[in-house]
């Protein structure tokens, strides 16, 4: 880095990982003519229009993100998938860089973007730019709760939106209460009622779409007791989590959303089930297809096992098309699954 730059300029470059915008020059005593001279001498290089790297060689991902947000002007923040990438909400870098600016900001596509020499920047606009900006994290980005809601709002369906809520909370990056508060500050929001209800399930320990579908389509509408979600147990010095534990009846319902299982994963589950059996716990396992297409049959099966373990509740029909009555009748006396309505006629014949 050139030694004749002012201390203020050197500190800014260090803070911004060697990236600076022309609009910042005056505030740190940097003459635009000096910038042009450094560019001509190949001491610096342009990254976007009006944004420069005070070094040679390929910029790192972090430096490109700094360049993208500086290119969008004062007050801009990284957002959506890009902010998710920085905060560990997304596992892979986004193909484009997402930036949010105020409604009064105009951002033009640079020549470097047109020619494919720099990552394309997608600009979003908001009238709450000061509210959504994280107060300390750099490069400038949205608060985690705002990032989660932004991604939920751009999802193709509610299941995808709910997955972002689960991911943020299960990774301990945000809490359901923070998401509720942030949602309350938004005047418009897709699936508002559904998301507020879903956040209640997340707060109770639901960590995936499959677990949410289980609660929504199997447990609640059929009148099953409420399970304890994600209960932590320790076995052989290792922590494990039970998806749904019906503790009074020593029954566990495990949910598996994977289409296929590696052999070691399958045996791990078997070993865990065997350990539970030694403790007197019965384990039932269901996959995505079971919960989403056979939810009434699954409810009847679980009810039958719970009743064998002492549950005296009433299995309810979830609607006109519910098949729980037929499933309970097929189960017979060995797996009673009483359905709400008149008791069966048990008089001697």
Task: Please tell me about this protein's structure.
The protein is an alpha+beta fold and 349 residues long. Among the domains are: 48 residues, no CATH class; 123 residues, VSR Endonuclease (Endonuclease, Chain A, 3-Layer(aba) Sandwich), CATH 3.40.960.10. It has 15 helices and 10 strands. The strands form 3 sheets. A 4-stranded mixed sheet has the order 7-8-9-10, sandwiched between helices. The chain has a 3-stranded antiparallel sheet with strand order 1-3-2. Helix 7 packs antiparallel against helix 8, helix 7 crosses helix 9 and helix 14 crosses helix 15. The longest helix has 16 residues. The chain is elongated and about 85 Å long. The C terminus is likely disordered.
Largest sheet: 4 strands, mixed
**Distance between the first and last residues' Cα:** 98 Å
General form? elongated
Give unreliable regions as ranges: 259-263, 332-349
CATH topology of one domain: Endonuclease, Chain A
CATH class of one domain equals Alpha Beta
Considering the protein shown, what is the CATH homologous superfamily of one domain?
VSR Endonuclease
* Percentage of residues assigned to helices: 40-55%
Number of beta strands: 10
Q: Please state how the strands of the largest beta sheet are arranged side by side.
A: 7-8-9-10
Instruction: State the secondary-structure class.
Output: alpha+beta
SS field, number of helical segments: 15
Radius of gyration equals: 28 Å
Estimate the mean pLDDT confidence: 86
How would you describe the oligomerization state of the chains in this entry?
A: single chain
CATH architecture of one domain: 3-Layer(aba) Sandwich
**N-to-C order of helices and strands:** HEHEEHEHEHEHHHHHHEEEHEHHH
Q: What percentage of the residues does DSSP assign to strands (E)?
A: 15-25%
């Amino acid at each position: 880095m050139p030694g004749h730059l002012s201390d203020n300029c050197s500190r800014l470059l260090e803070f911004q990982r060697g990236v600076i915008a022309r609009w910042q020059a005056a505030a740190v005593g940097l003459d635009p003519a000096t910038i042009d001279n450094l560019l001509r001498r190949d001491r610096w290089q342009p990254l976007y229009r009006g944004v420069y790297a005070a070094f040679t060689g390929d910029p790192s991902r972090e430096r490109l993100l700094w360049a993208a947000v500086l290119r969008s002007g004062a007050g801009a923040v990284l957002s959506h998938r890009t902010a998710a990438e920085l905060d560990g909400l997304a596992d892979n870098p986004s193909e484009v860089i997402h930036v949010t600016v105020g409604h009064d900001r105009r951002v033009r596509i640079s020549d470097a973007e047109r020619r494919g020499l720099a990552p394309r920047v997608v600009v979003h606009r908001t009238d709450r730019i000061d509210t959504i900006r994280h107060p300390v994290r750099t490069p400038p980005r949205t608060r985690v709760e705002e990032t989660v809601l932004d991604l939920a709002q751009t999802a193709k369906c509610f299941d995808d939106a709910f997955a972002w809520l689960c991911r943020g909370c299960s990774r301990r990056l945000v809490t359901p209460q923070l998401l509720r508060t942030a949602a309350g500050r938004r005047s418009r929001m897709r699936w508002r009622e559904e998301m507020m209800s879903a956040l209640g399930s997340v707060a109770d320990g639901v960590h995936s779409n499959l677990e949410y579908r289980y609660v929504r389509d199997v447990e609640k509408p059929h009148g099953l007791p409420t399970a304890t979600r994600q209960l932590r147990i320790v076995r052989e010095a290792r922590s494990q989590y039970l998806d749904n534990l019906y503790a009074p009846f020593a029954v566990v319902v495990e949910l598996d959303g994977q289409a296929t299982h590696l052999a070691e994963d399958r045996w791990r589950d078997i070993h865990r089930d065997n350990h539970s059996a030694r403790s007197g716990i019965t384990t039932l396992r269901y996959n995505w297809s079971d919960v989403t297409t056979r939810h009434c049959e699954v409810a009847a099966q679980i009810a039958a096992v719970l009743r064998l373990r002492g549950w005296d509740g009433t299995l309810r029909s979830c609607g006109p098309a519910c098949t729980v009555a037929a499933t309970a009748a097929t189960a017979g006396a060995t797996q009673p699954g009483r359905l709400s309505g008149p008791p069966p006629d048990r008089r001697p014949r």
